[in-house]
Specification:
Among the domains are: 43 residues, no CATH class; 161 residues, von Willebrand factor, type A domain (Rossmann fold, 3-Layer(aba) Sandwich), CATH 3.40.50.410. It starts with a helix and ends with a helix. The protein is α/β, with parallel strands linked by helices and 377 residues long. Strands 5-4-3-6-7-8 form a 6-stranded mixed beta sheet, sandwiched between helices.
């Protein structure tokens, strides 16, 4: 280790108070050679509170760069530090410095721009929210979820669109299903003589024809903290799928325990507010439970959303996968599901699962819809 590396490490240990002294050593030129700047800023955001009179609020008047906001800090520490360090930082922020009081303040939440990052932070800290803050958080969650749903819904519906059933009506309102004749007939009583036109009070739509034997989609989601974005998209995808008459949906979440949320699948907000992030992972147990939901294997698709890191050991996971595939069920392993289709996962386990006959990938929600629709043809 050279002198410059040693100085960098000492600067990180000692903090910003040492910058002026250390920058004059070994030609560091005002600290420009400090390699751990981002790490230092993230640690300083939290631990500089140790030197303030009010440890819950960062002091104003600093000559440093623009200060981060709490959601940004939470997002960055998860990208920079390993899981065990993130847990320590979050615990210190919440318990030692009462940082949750900033994020879980009703006025602060109302002032924030609803987006995916804020949604993830709300879900991570929702158990510490109380009273009116919970309702504010739910409104934010619903707003972001609704925006994501609208973005995905049309593409997914097109992937599964079937022949229109013109003998029935539905409340599933999309323009290509408009029942024009029934809309006119039912609204003749609303004819406006002055305008010489019908003013429809109710608009009717045709449903898609429901198949006698619908496909069963079992979506089983790992709720460990690293899978948070995939959990969000899984809940949204399930809520869209359940509207399609050719599909029957089961939604299951798991860590070391398994919870069936099928009864809440039509409202992704209820699903997300039920998720308990973190804890261990028993994939084999979850897959064993999902086996009990299989009724017609050749018309069943099982979607396991997981990073394949099984804390209970891999034998049960592989055994369950083998049994499921041998029945004729199509097994998808999604190691990540988001708009970037990226995810960290156990590559060796993924290779073994693929060898057993599962389809393994990190995908976007749109790609998942295409996978499923193609598998049904």
């Amino acid at each position: 280790m050279n002198d410059r590396e040693i100085i960098n490490r000492w600067r990180l240990i000692l903090g910003s108070f040492s910058e002026e002294t250390l920058s004059s050593m070994k030609g560091m030129e005002g600290g420009d050679d400090f390699r751990f700047r981002e790490i230092d800023d993230l640690l300083d955001f939290l631990y500089s509170r140790e030197y303030s009179d009010d440890r819950g609020v960062r002091q104003e008047g600093s000559l440093g760069p623009s200060q981060m906001i709490v959601p940004e800090w939470i997002r960055k520490i998860r990208n920079v530090f390993p899981k065990e360090v993130v847990e320590r930082l979050e615990n210190d922020a919440l318990d030692r410095y009462q940082l949750a009081e900033i994020l879980t303040d009703k006025k602060v939440l109302e002032s924030m721009q609803p987006n995916m990052n804020l949604l993830k932070n709300i879900l991570a800290l929702k158990n510490r929210m109380k009273g009116e803050v919970v309702e504010t958080a739910k409104r934010i969650v619903r707003q972001v979820v609704d925006e994501l749903t609208k973005k995905l819904e049309n593409d997914i519906q097109r992937s599964f669109s079937g022949k229109i059933n013109r003998s029935e009506s539905t409340t599933f309102k999309i323009s290509k299903n408009l029942d024009f004749k029934k809309t006119v007939r039912k609204n003749l009583k609303n004819f406006d003589a002055n305008l010489k036109t019908i003013i429809p009070h109710t608009i009717y739509f045709n449903p898609r024809i429901k198949r006698f034997n619908p496909w069963n989609i079992i979506i089983c989601v790992d709720q460990s903290g690293s899978m948070l974005e995939s959990v969000i998209y899984s809940a949204i995808m399930a809520s869209i799928f359940v509207k399609l008459p050719i599909l029957r949906i089961n939604l299951v979440i798991f860590d070391t325990e398994v919870v069936n949320l099928t009864g809440y699948v039509d409202d992704p907000v209820d699903v997300l507010m039920s998720v308990q992030l973190g804890g261990g992972t028993d994939i084999g147990k979850a897959m064993g439970y999902c086996e009990t939901l299989i009724e017609t294997p050749v018309r069943t698709l099982m979607v396991m959303v997981t990073d394949l890191c099984d804390g209970a050991g891999y034998h049960n996971m592989y055994s369950s996968a083998k049994r499921i595939i041998e029945t004729g069920v199509r097994l998808f392993i999604l190691t990540g599901m988001d708009e970037q289709s990226q995810g960290m996962f156990d590559k060796n386990a993924a290779k073994i699962m693929a060898g057993l006959g599962a389809r393994v990938a990190s995908v976007t929600p749109g790609s998942l819809a295409l996978w499923i629709s193609e598998s049904m043809k």
